[in-house]
Design brief:
Order of helices and strands: HEHEEHEHEEHEHEHEHEHEHHHHEEEEE
Strand content: 15-25%
Strand order of the largest sheet: 8-7-9-10-11-15-16
Number of domains: 2
Structural class: alpha/beta
Radius of gyration: 21 Å
Oligomer: single chain
Mean pLDDT: 91
Distance between the termini: 22 Å
Helix content: 40-55%
Number of helices: 13
CATH architecture of the largest domain: 3-Layer(aba) Sandwich
Low-confidence stretches: 2-28
Largest sheet: 7 strands, mixed
Length: 395
């Protein structure tokens, strides 16, 4: 997902300057190579700062996958088992820091691959350097449609993701609101501080078959949404579509319910965090829906997901999230790519990632397409009293 556009500006300029200098010093077109006993996997993740909730959830999934693989003997590289060594860095939800972490991992630590960052802006910042170093990275949650593409429309050769794009979320939310909720009059209240919120809103508008009676925006960090919600209430809406992150969406839900708005409130995977219900209040978090790549209820039918959820609960003593699941799948995709290529150098590993088909992951069966995006299932979860009460599979 693309988070907090407001952190662009000077940090972007700094990242670009840092990137340019580093490329000149660290040009390694031969990729990276691993030692005889270990395979280094880098983690460039938002472990502090604005997006830390997502980054820490993903780190848990990464660590669980690596520990499982090592316990089972490691990754088979042409008949020789090698253990994973994770090298974890906090990019502090900063574009400039993410760029420097990418440089460190690719050119100094010489990892075989990188998992993360979680957000589109932070992930984009490391692309020039990892491309020069010929080291692939997988973002578990960068959902901007153009993330894996260059400005000329060609795919970034070393950029992959395990999550679906914003437009897919917006389109499926609109179909759900139309066909399942039967809502004929909808208001949209989108986060305009990121391409995540605006991208979902655009896709929703293009697909929804009913009447959009109003479309308003807010910014990350806003606290008071009462004026806009009052105007929505006066227009007799059947539902509100709120593409954004749990920090603000939780407050929007709380304030909407306090003024007597009881209609369904629908959003995207930025709502997938336990803090949503804490912010909104459990009783207020009823008749709430969001698109997600991973539903624990639907996952009960998937043996890979059941194994993951059980292991996650045992290790961390809490239930899992979509972000942990996506990151977990990313590590196993790296393992699959190495074993199919029978090599762990970064260039051959990249080829293996691009050729992944019928990967049985926690989030379902995944195939990487020509734009390095996953073709995968999507689900919608319903919340009642702050807990997931129902799940819907979207075909």
């Amino acid at each position: 997902m693309k988070k907090f556009k407001r952190i662009l500006g000077l940090t972007t300029i700094a990242a670009m300057m840092l990137t340019g200098c580093s490329i000149a010093k660290n040009n390694n077109s031969n990729g990276t190579h691993q030692d005889k006993e270990t395979i280094k996997i880098g983690v460039n993740m938002e472990l502090s700062g604005a997006a830390a909730g997502y980054g820490n959830a993903e780190k848990q999934g990464i660590q669980l996958a690596a520990s499982e693989i090592n316990k089972a003997g490691g990754i088979d590289v042409n008949g020789h088992k090698k253990k994973i060594k994770l090298i974890i860095h906090d990019n502090k939800s900063s574009i400039a820091t993410s760029a420097s972490v990418g440089i460190q991992l690719a050119t100094k630590d010489k990892v075989a691959a990188i998992v993360g960052p979680a957000t589109t802006n932070a992930g984009t910042a490391q692309i020039p350097n990892i491309t020069k170093a010929a080291v692939p990275f997988i973002s578990p949650s960068a959902t901007d449609p153009s993330f894996t593409l260059q400005k000329n429309g060609k795919v970034h050769p070393y950029v992959f993701r395990t999550c679906f794009q914003n437009n897919i979320q917006g389109e499926n939310a609109a179909k759900f609101v139309t066909n399942k909720l039967k809502a004929k009059k909808v208001a949209i209240y989108a986060d305009n501080s990121s391409d995540y919120g605006t991208g979902l809103a655009k896709a929703f508008k293009a697909t929804y078959k009913g009447k959009i009676v109003d479309s308003q925006t807010y910014s990350a960090g806003d606290k008071d949404f009462n004026a806009v919600l009052t105007s929505f209430k006066a227009k007799g809406i059947d539902a509100i579509y709120v593409p954004g992150y749990y920090t603000e969406v939780g407050l929007i839900i709380k304030q909407a319910r306090q003024m007597g708005i009881k209609v369904p409130i629908i959003g995207g995977d930025g709502m997938v965090d336990p803090k949503l219900a804490q912010i909104a209040g459990a009783q207020n978090a009823t008749n709430i829906y969001y698109t997600t790549p991973f539903s624990t209820r639907l996952a009960a039918k998937n043996p890979v997901a059941v194994k993951f959820m059980t292991a996650f609960k045992q290790r961390y003593k809490v239930g899992t999230s979509a972000f942990s699941a996506l990151a977990y799948d990313a590590v196993y995709m790296i393992k699959t790519a190495i074993e199919k290529q029978k090599a762990d150098d970064s260039i051959k590993l990249t080829k293996g990632l691009a050729n992944i088909k019928d990967f049985n992951g926690v989030t379902g069966k995944i195939a990487i397409n020509k734009t390095h995006d996953p073709e995968m299932p999507i689900a919608i979860e319903e919340m009642t009293n702050g807990k997931v009460s129902n799940s819907f599979s979207v075909k």
